[in-house]
Amino acid sequence: MAQKILSNEFKALSNESWTNISLINENIFQWSVALIVLNPDSLYYGGYFKARMTFPANYPYSPPQFRFERPLWHPNIYDDGRLCISILHPPGEDAMSGEMAGERWSPVQRVETVLISVLSLLDDAECSSPANVDAGVMLRNDPTSYKARVAQDREKSKEDIPAGFEMPTHETAFKVPPKNDDFSWSDSEVEDFDEGSSDEEMFDADDGSENDDDED
Q: How far is Cα 86 from Cα 79, in angstroms, rounded to an integer?
């Protein structure tokens, strides 16, 4: 069952512009995942953040593992690239951390949910219990230096962009097809319209003749 679910999820995500995924050694339980931030207001916009996802044999009953290949300077990312994020924690409540079951992994979650949560986490760091204490302190006390450090990571990440891969931008990802204003009636449509008008005139004529009969 896990293989089928993962195959379907892989196929669906392959069409998304905000991620670039592939299998590692053709193993459906090992994914190479790149996250591409499309929000131009984000500190991470323009980066190519490559990671590895490993799925357990009993997926989706247990969560996958996620680890950035290039560790990022972020309060919720460990030095080895692992994340401190509730959605990747095992199912059920955790009295120690105070996490509710609804915040943690459950079998209804999917890979897309995880990746979107990671993207959200990048710009919405949780500093109350940071995995990287120094990054958390810098974000609170020296945001200018923090932004500069993030910019370094963002530019470094571009080294992982595959040859020939065209990086999407906000403009290309959300481009709206041009509206066609060159509207004109086709000959057949004009004929249909004229025929409809003739029918109405005939109907009116019939009504008139019926009225004449009533008068007689």
A: 18
**pLDDT tens-digit readout, 14-66:** 999 999 999 999 999 999 999 999 999 999 999 999 999 999 999 999 999 99
Beta strand 27-36 with 48-54 is antiparallel
Same domain, 110 and 213: no
The pTM for the full model equals 0.77
Q: Are residues 52 and 156 in the same domain?
A: yes
Q: In this predicted model, what pLDDT tens digit does every residue of 160-207 receive, in sequence order? A: 999 999 999 999 988 766 666 555 555 555 455 455 544 444 445 445
For residue 170, CA distances in Å to 40, 102, 127, 167, 176 come to 7, 32, 28, 10, 11
Q: Are residues 167 and 190 in the same domain?
A: no
Question: Domain of 195?
Answer: 184-216
Active site residue 127: no
Contacts of 13 by beta carbon, 8 Å cutoff, 6+ apart: 19, 21, 111, 112, 115
Catalytic-role residue among 2, 23, 84, 161 = 84
